[in-house]
Amino acid sequence: MVDVLYVEDELSLALIVADSLEAHGFQVTHRENGRDAVIAFKHKKPDIVVLDVMMPLMDGFSVATEIRKVDLSTPIIFLTAMTHTEDVVKGFHLGANDYVRKPFKIEELIVRIESLTKRVAVAQAMKQYIIGDFVLDTIKSTLTYGTEQEKLSFREVELLRRLFEHKDEVVPREEIIRAYWNDDTYFTGRSLDVFISRIRKYLSKDERIKITNIRSVGYMLTID
User: Fold this and answer.
1) Are 110 and 203 in a shared domain?
2) 132 and 114 both lie in a single domain
3) CA atoms within 13 A on the CB side of 168
4) pTM of the predicted model, to two decimals?
5) Which candidate, 30, 175, 195, 33, places its Cα nearest to that of 187?
């Protein structure tokens, strides 16, 4: 059963949509404002977030920003009556996966929910990681950006995976070297710097992704 966090402050609409989703087999948690939505997300991570943009206390864009600070893979669908292109673009830059414009038919929303949750499930089953606008496939050793695909070495795959799994945390140099080079010689330290430079180059198409060198300590991957 797909667990949906549904955030909508218009109560009459929310009741209709929540009832319809539950009738189609979804489990729905409804919240009426952005602040409560963030709390609900952190309390129990849902399979997908369906999020109104204009809400009290915290708008949908702010909610998406808070979610993406702690989670990059849970799909987010924005529901909005806003039609300006810049609003849509802003939503995608903040980490939205899809937009549904109000008014909408429940069948359209259901199809979009099913499509996104299936895609995430397939990615997880295939040992894929969604890193910003990239997909890292640890089985095929590939890093994909749109239609472009880069073949990575084993060490590149494992290094990027480790940095991403510890996103926003410093991964010590010694820990990486012990894991993939077995000792802490000058040569292996220099090799690590070269690998980090290569990974930065691979990821440079997405300006949100940064790998920061914490001098004499290690590296930290962040996604703005």
Assistant:
1) no
2) no
3) 8
4) 0.59
5) 195
